[in-house]
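Audit log entry. Action: structure prediction of a protein-small molecule complex. Ligand: UGB. The ligand was supplied as SMILES and no pocket hint was given, so placement is left entirely to the predictor. Protonation state taken as written. Sequence taken verbatim from the request; no trimming, no tag removal. Recorded inputs:
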Amino acid sequence: MSQLKPISSHMDGGAPSTPGKFKVDKSPFVHHRLRWHSSLAKLAFWSFVFLGLILLFFYRSPSSPPSSASDRRLLRHSSHPSAPWGGPSWEKRVRSSARVRSGRLTVLVTGAAGFIGSHVSLALRHRGDGVLGLDNFNDYYDPSLKRARQALLERARVFIVEGDVNDAALLTKLFDVVPFTHVMHLAAQAGVRYAMKNPASYIHSNVAGLVSLFEACKSANPQPAVVWASSSSVYGLNSKVPFSESDRTDRPASLYAATKKAGEEIAHTYNHIYGLSITGLRFFTVYGPWGRPDMAYFFFTKDILRGKGIPIFETPDHGTVARDFTYIDDVVKGCLASLDTAGKSTGSGGKKRGPAPLRVFNLGNTSPLPVAKLVGILERLLKVKANRMMVKMPRNGDVPFTHANISLAAKELGYKPTTDLATGLKKFVKWYLSYYDSGKRSSG
Ligand SMILES: O=C(O)[C@H]1O[C@H](OP(=O)(O)OP(=O)(O)OC[C@H]2O[C@@H](n3ccc(=O)[nH]c3=O)[C@H](O)[C@@H]2O)[C@H](O)[C@@H](O)[C@H]1O
């Protein structure tokens, strides 16, 4: 150690005041000191590398199979909030769910326990595609509904991996196990008004989660084509109707809309840099059986049956608020057509090989109806008079109307919605009554 002193004292002399004029001392004593110095540096370097490897091992360990029940319990409370994953039997389930005859698609569906995700997963499975679901089963709305959808998918032999799209190690593992041809990315924080209450969840799911997913897709070999859920809300404060894909989308009225708009820009980047084939779908107020309890048609049904007041929004000048309500089966057809026509990603292992498709489509119904009309249809179907309350639309992200121009989707996807609101709500109410009125379940 004493040998170090001259060096440190030499260094203590400070850096040269004039850069480039540092005088090199060539005495043998200094060579000796330098040898000491370099071997010490080597030792420090290799210790550092060794320590790094140990840390890396511990950091990556959740992706390797947990060896015991107690390991699995620990993982549940570790940095990954999702259920434990990995291990031979888990991989077997993943492979078998995604297995497919040659020529069919192998699709990873994120948000598979969600409303649109569960319908799309079933439709893909029914036509013979390989499907693996991914869902974090969060409690934004009643998770038991998500579990019931999961049970439905299990009956169709679709396995839903329990995990978050932000879990990069899990995504890497899934792509290691299955060479997905397509990803249908529907996992998101939905709901326009909730963004005022929990803004962070929108950034986490709709921005960070989307980037995490694109990162995994761009690194995968082969790269899949990605179809993902954007939203009609990106049209924001536009007043020109119907909304066309080429219209401006730079005036979002809610943070939800802003995160979807951000997603569209992020999609452009990943398409541009990595050659990912990406299709964004702007959904217009999708409704139907197995729907989302946070949406108006769903909780209106519940509240009409309970005799509670129904707040019907109107514009500040007492004008009607209207939506281009779109039935789930029509949207599912649009999703499948988007997957079928996606075109290939061109990159591999993170390197772009050429230009790839970047598309965005409106999936709406082209016939907006006032919310009051929706309530009237529900009254008729439920045979109960609603306790209507006209309320000024709160300034919390809602827009007064939406109306889709679907000519692009019609041309490129053959998209043609066929279900009007009365027909679609009839199917929803039938499902609602059988699901909740069986006496076993509570609608909260
Ligand atoms: O197209 C989308 O991209 C979005 O569609 C959906 O948003 P919205 O069109 O706002 O649906 P939803 O809440 O069912 O309100 C329906 C109507 O009822 C009105 N409304 C609502 C609540 C209320 O208490 N009273 C009322 O009149 C309200 O003003 C509105 O006119 C999805 O939730 C969203 O995740 C996103 O996918």
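Audit: result stored. Residues 190-192, 231-233, 283-285, 295-297, 311-313, 321, 323, 371, 393, 398 surround UGB (CB under 6 Å). The first strand starts at residue 106 and ends at 110.
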